[in-house]
Amino acid sequence: MPGRPRATGVFAYGAAAGLALDLLLGDPRRGHPVAAFGRTAAAVEKRLHRDHRGWGALHTAVCAGSTAALGALAARAVRDRPAAAVALTAASVWAVVGGTTLGREARAIGGALAAGDLEVARERLPHLCGRDPQSLDGPAMARAVVESVAENTSDAVVGALFWGAVAGMPGLVGFRAVNTLDAMVGHKSPRYRRFGWASARLDDLAGWPGARLTAALATVAGGDPRGAVRAWRADAPKHPSPNAGPVEASFAGALGVRLGGTLSYGGRVEHRPVLNGEGRAVEVADVERAVALSRRVTALTLAACVGGRLIVGAVRRGKRRSA
Q1: To the nearest whole percent, how much of the chain has pLDDT over 90?
Q2: What b/e readout covers 70-101, taking b as 16+ CB neighbours within 10 angstroms?
Q3: pLDDT at position 2, please?
Q4: Distance (Å, rounded) from C-alpha 70 to C-alpha 41?
Q5: Under a CB-based contact definition with an 8 Å cutoff, are residues 259 and 285 in contact?
Q6: In sequence order, which residues have a C-beta less than 8 Å from that of residue 58 and are 6 or more positions away?
Q7: Which of 116, 153, 219, 231 is an S-S bond match for 294, by CB 3.0 to 4.6 Å?
Q8: pTM of the model as a whole
Q9: Handedness of CA 241, 243, 246, 247 (dihedral sign)
Q10: DSSP for 244-257?
Q11: How confident is the model at residue 317 (pLDDT cuts 50, 70, 90)?
């Protein structure tokens, strides 16, 4: 993490302002930068797609690398103007995080479930996750929402802030680019099994620290720290995803609910391990509890990232003075 006091201040003020913008405005309905990146990545895919890992790695390098490079150029352009640097950081954080929209979508589905309107809930579920909604009853949809809130807290908020703290603007936008590429081509369909391999593996690597930070902060911010730690240690390794496992298990333990089990993606049924088997079945009211936990984790992430930069900066200054 850069140790210059001004750089730390830029990140702290910019990230806080960006999160405030997200809280007030949510995602822009039109012209979202992530959607623009997705269209560009799809256009690049049309030219590069081959059923081959090497071509997929090239696609990943072109899309994610160019995004990080643009972030570096933008940061360089404003590095001597603190106010502009804060504004750029704030705008970028607002563009790449999605905590408020995540909460809104989760609450909309929770509200439909509470009203007994399963059809409306099924219509809205694809906005939040890739499950097959027609195969789910009310409790299964509530469970899917809680799991999606947990996983997307890591992917859409914590991971981006972590890499923004570590690597500045390139880390902030580069992480979101990698995460978006994984959502686009990282699944094991016949078209992407080889081509999307590089994006999926890079997303696993980039998401690793943010997922562990999310799990740790959910343990601190949840209502049952011991239960969260127990579920994390016992059940996370059983999950097929190295990053979703710790996050979902810690959320399950913190909320006292049981996650995992049978689910369906794109007509393919998966039988995943149960997370926090000692917990109760998810209820509709747990959707709001998961959203509230996600917001507390977001606030703690900002504090942890700013604090981490301050500590690293102080250590580096101490080393320079003693040299």
Answers
A1: 83
A2: ebbebbeebbeeeeebbbbbbbbbbbbbbbbb
A3: 45
A4: 15
A5: no
A6: 48
A7: 153
A8: 0.93
A9: negative
A10: HHHHHHHHHHHHTB
A11: confident
